[in-house]
Amino acid sequence: MLLLSAADVYLNEADELLSKGDVVQACEKYYKAAEEAVKMLAVKLNMTDLLNKVKEQKRWSSDILFSVAFRAPKEIHEAWKSAWVLHVYGFHEMSLEMEQVNLRANKVRLLANIF
Prior knowledge:
The chain has helices at residues 6-19, 23-44, 48-57, 62-71, 74-92, 98-112. The chain has six helices and no strands. It starts with 5 loop residues before the first helix and ends with a helix. This is HEPN domain-containing protein.
């Protein structure tokens, strides 16, 4: 049996939603995939100061997620920024077209598949 990470599950859901034309919900799932990948990255790279901040706040705030992403190599923080665009402009603002989502989704896939 193959075990999927949370990021993989969200990616699969996002791809399925996008294939059905549900751009808005796909954007949020791509963002969630990136969010889970960034969380795994913080653990993998032993970013204890940020992990302690999560424990103190009892949640992963956007500023912590951005801090993790920006400490990583450029490709990772670029992918994280793409995910954030999907979250804000694709989900909340509902202003992205399918082509724009596909371009950013490819970067999110790279981020989610780093492990």
